[in-house]
Amino acid sequence: MALFVNQLTHIDVSLWCPQRGLVGCSWQVDAVLDGELGDDGMLFDFGEVKPWIKRTLDSGLDHTLLVPTEAPGVTVTDCPEGVCVRTTTPYSMEVRGPKEAFSLLPWRTITPDTIATYLSQQLTTQRPDNVHQVTLTLSDEAINGAAYGYTHGLKRHIGNCQRIAHGHRSRLYIWQRDTRQPLLEQQWSDWLDNRYLLEQADIAAQDSDTLTCRYQAAQGDFSITLPLARCAVLPGPTTVENIAAWLAQEVATQSGAATRIQAFEGINKGAIATFSPSVTP
Question: Which residues have C-beta within 8 Å of that of residue 19, sequence separation ≥ 6?
Fold first, then answer.
């Protein structure tokens, strides 16, 4: 007997890719539980399945930086902040923060399938007696149109969003004159894809090639150094509300047309902002 729950939850992370660098991801989570019926005629109460699995994901790799420690050019050491991750290819990066902000995985590369297998094994070891196996499937949201992955951290957030290198894969909708603008959506998504978004006030050092973002949050001290070309600097915190407002102003200013932005933070949530180049917001 098997019990399934589709779109049970989703995971928002960033991962280090030896070919692409820092990549923001949002994965939908489907679950299948195999086992035997209990005396109550159920394999597992539906009301308990989601919170049980979600607790495991939330306290584990969700909102962390996934690091394939066997990938070329990756080194991991201890540091005063907790963990220091350095990379050399496809570009140099250094990230420091409490150990809880990282998922260190002894692999050469990370894919949704390898993460699904890892999490399935973890949940299976915690299963109730009548459940024999838990199998998760992770998948990207099906997006017919423009999408981009980004990485950021929110130092003022009371939860795990304060971690300096977690990310999302998001849709982007742009309207001008009450009409969707797919070419603009693709143009800006291409530009934003695989960038690190940071707040101007958190820049600790910058030169012609690199930028260092550093801040202190409730969970500890964080810093990240990476190529300047991989960064997008916002005037305020990189919340989805501010991302939408910043993009609306940038797109409107460059195109000369009033613009409405619908920016997503991962799957099924986000913010809407408008800006007219002739009106001060």
Answer: 90
- Residue (of 279, 275, 47, 72) closest to 175 by Cα position: 275
Write out the two tokens for 212. Answer: 């260092």
**pTM over the 0.70 mark:** yes
> pLDDT per position in the chain (281 positions), as tens?
777 888 989 999 999 999 999 999 999 999 988 777 666 666 566 667 788 888 889 889 999 999 999 999 999 999 999 999 999 999 999 999 999 999 999 999 999 999 999 999 999 888 776 777 889 999 999 999 999 999 999 999 999 999 999 999 999 999 999 999 999 999 999 999 999 999 999 999 999 999 999 999 999 999 999 999 999 999 999 999 999 999 999 999 999 999 999 999 999 899 999 999 975 44
Classify strands 93-97 and 65-68 as parallel, antiparallel or unpaired: unpaired
Q: Which two tokens stand for residue 2?
A: 């098997």
Q: How far apart are CA 263 and CA 173, in angstroms?
A: 7
Residue 174 to residue 156: CA distance in whole angstroms: 28
Q: What angle do CA 70, 119, 116 make, to 5 degrees?
A: 80
Task: Identify the three-state secondary structure at position 144.
Answer: coil
